[in-house]
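Hi X.,

You mentioned you wanted examples for the new student's onboarding notes, showing what a folding record looks like when two proteins sit in one file. Here is a clean example. The first protein comes first, with its sequence line followed by its structure tokens.
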Amino acid sequence: MNMFIRQDEILYCEAEECLRKLSEKCNIGVIANQESGTEKRLKEFGILQYINLVIASAEEGVVKPDKRIFEIALNRATCKP
């Protein structure tokens, strides 16, 4: 197991195929109350390639449900709510 992936982070067996299919038609974003390194962990799982935007609370200094984290995501995604 890679140093970025924690033992309590488990990828469902269908996740990659689901993300692959969704990414063909949709832009995918992750907004999560996570510690630093979320993008690295998603890359190690082999699924970052399907995700267009990752917003992690530890890296932004704001946690859900604070609306600012969603505003950050909307701004970076350049889309409307």
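Then the second protein repeats the pattern, sequence line and then tokens:
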Amino acid sequence: MKTVSISSKGQIAIPKTARTLLQIKQGDKLIFKIKDGKILLEPIIGIPRSEAWFWKKEIQQKIKKADENYKAGKFKRYKNVDMLIKNLKDE
């Protein structure tokens, strides 16, 4: 077990073995949590704001459902784009 010291500014250094294992590098962001009297640091991956909608729970559920339908063969095939557009307009 490695130990770390707290600097006069309240900073700690994450041991190199942990940084390597978790692929943490300079400038990365971590979530800071306190749970059951322990400090937890969790690496986070930032995403562009313009792509944030994709990761919302309801969108991910719809993608999962669409994937399940596809795997189950529940989809239509169209011979060309015009047929697809016509079908979409009819619905």
